[in-house]
Design brief:
alpha+beta, single chain
Length: 280
């Protein structure tokens, strides 16, 4: 009887070990499929959005990617982000006085900004190129930015679990990140030489509060059921509990949930209109 019991126990344990091993192999295969230098933002984001449970390695890899300061999920231009995109973005800004500015942004297949070309109010154009480094544990991270022959080199600091907690530039710039227990960004502190420290507070990946130079701003969004994304509709500057200024946004979006036209007003008066077109 005891021999029979031991035989059953042994067979059962071997089956459990085998299933566990299969699970490990499957996890390894999934990690290899999604944590690599050639992964696209579209496929990685789709997996993260649809998978119930996925390896912790992918969570860190994805978090480090989309929280890059130059990622299309995070980079802000004239307050309105790009909501996650790749390829080329052509942007025209028409001010309330009729003056126009034409800008171009190039994002790689992972959604990281590779070049920005921004036209200033006097017509001068500033072009900045961005370079990235990669390792298979943390993913891609900003390595250099080059502008008018000047290069800034960046160095990341990672937590024990692999999250990028800080990115330091050799020009004195720095970005620090705070994450919650689920690995979601909750705060981003930006320090640029000659500028006030900027603190951004996040909820569900979206900025909800900004503090800079003693000023406080609250961000408000509208949820779009068709795309499953939130879209910025207003930024209110607060003094205590009072709203002293409000910038509002009216927009059109495409089927990918990207802004194509944004009308911006400040305290009820038209300020500018932004039109964007996307190559991908």
């Amino acid at each position: 009887m005891m021999k029979s019991f031991l035989r059953i126990w042994f067979v059962t344990m071997m089956a459990v070990v085998a299933l566990h091993a299969v699970g490990q192999v499957d996890d390894a295969e999934v990690v290899d499929a999604y944590c690599n230098e050639n992964i696209t933002l579209e496929s990685l984001a789709a997996y993260v959005d649809t998978a119930r449970n996925y390896p912790a390695r992918i969570k860190v890899f994805y978090s480090n990617l989309v929280n890059n300061p130059t990622h299309s999920y995070r980079i802000e231009h004239l307050d309105v982000g790009f909501n996650g995109c790749t390829g080329r973005v052509d942007e025209q800004v028409v001010m309330a006085n009729g003056s126009k500015r034409d800008n171009v942004f190039l994002f790689n297949k992972q959604g990281l900004l590779s070049q920005s070309s921004i036209q200033g109010s006097k017509g001068t154009r500033t072009i900045v190129d961005y370079l990235y480094s990669y390792d298979n544990q943390h993913g891609a991270i900003l390595k250099q930015s080059k502008r008018k022959g000047k290069t800034i080199n960046y160095a990341p600091i990672y937590s024990e679990d692999g999250h990028c907690m800080s990115l330091k530039g050799d020009n004195g710039s720095r970005q620090d990140y705070t994450f919650n227990e689920k690995g979601h960004i909750t705060k981003r502190v930006i320090v640029q030489p000659g500028s006030d420290k900027r603190t951004l507070i996040y909820q569900d990946g979206y900025i909800i509060r900004e503090e800079v130079g003693g000023r406080v701003f609250r961000y408000h969004y509208d949820y779009d059921t068709a795309t499953g994304k939130k879209f910025l509709i207003s930024i209110k500057e607060l003094k205590g509990n009072d709203v002293i200024h409000e910038r509002t946004f009216q927009y059109d979006i495409d089927t990918h949930g990207r802004y194509t036209r944004i009308e911006i007003a400040l305290d009820g008066k038209p300020q500018m209109t932004i039109t964007r077109s996307y190559s991908l």
